[in-house]
Amino acid sequence: MQDMEEEKAILLGLREQKGWGNRRCHRLLDHWEEAETKSSFLEWVIEEGEKENIEREGIEKVIKNLAFWQRIIIEEKPIYYREEEYPSLLKEIYNPPLFLFWQGKIELLQKPSLAFIGSRKMQKEAQQQVTQFVQGLKEEYVIVSGLARGVDAESQFQALKHKGSTIAVLGNGLDYYYPKENQALQQIIAKKGLLLSEYRKGTAPKKYHFPARNRIIAGLCQGIIVIQAGEKSGTFITAKIGLEEGREVFVLPGSTIEHAYDGSYSLLREGAELVWQPDQIYESLTFWR
User: Fold this and answer.
1) CA nearest to 151, candidates 189, 179, 181, 116
2) pLDDT, tens digit (0-9, with 9 covering 90-100), for 185-210
3) Which parts form a coiled-coil structure per UniProt (predicted)?
């Protein structure tokens, strides 16, 4: 079948149903192209769902309310996995999001980018490092982060302050502000940068959204800059995803006495690169440019 708008509406609806989700919906893509009619595709989906003990009620709900999902596609205009606008690097990762909801300057997705990640309990040294590296890299790279407290928000604030570009990847719908303290920053990024989320409007932040959000941050960028990562922290996990996906991971040094940097030094043993000047990142990413 060739009707991509209908394809998007059905897959968005299915993704929202219990038992399906993003990963299982990815498996349906090839069969959509092979199916002769929408009915034959949906019958096959029901059969596949039953094999995995997924109740058919969710699929029937999507069919019944297809006009609702079509309206979401029209009004919110998410970027779909099969569309040319979808970021090519993000397609390479395990379980890339089928949909990217956005607000702001969509053209930033086509520019080279670096992720800045680090502790929510940012120390003074880490704050100074954020400023130093954002200032040194903003001319060539879009600064990507997750708008969390600490290093995330500081890196995005510094990018805007110094007339750079930034993308904030959220763990909720674009109409939610989380954390609340970053509401003003989120509103500015929506106008001067880009907000990105795999969740449609009306989706509240939930604990399990943020590890999923982190794979998008890692997947969008050529490199990841780690500033003050604790052991087994979200920052450490995001950087590990980056290493597994073939991204360059750069670690800035910090105290060897405090446990606040244990994750940073563990990443060096995993294959990350130690850097202390922005120029070192330019040198390491030459092959990406």
Assistant:
1) 116
2) 999 999 999 999 999 999 999 999 99
3) none
Going by C-alpha positions, the residue among 15, 57, 4 that lies closest to residue 200 is: 15
Tell me the mean pLDDT in the region 106-129: 96
The pLDDT assigned to 287 comes to 61
Q: What does the alpha-carbon distance between residue 227 and residue 224 come to, in Å, rounded to a whole number?
A: 10
Taking the complete model, does pTM exceed 0.90, yes or no? yes
Tokens of 97: 């999001």
N-terminal to C-terminal alpha carbon distance within the chain:
38
Ordered DSSP codes for 66-132: HHHHHHHHHHH-PEETTSTTS-HHHHTSSS--SEEEEEE-GGGGGS-EEEEEE-SS--HHHHHHHHH
19-32 pLDDT tens trace: 889 998 998 887 77
Task: Say which CATH topology domain 103-288 has.
Answer: Rossmann fold (3.40.50)
Number of H helices, E strands in the chain: 14, 9
Domain-wise residue ranges, the chain: 4-76, 103-288
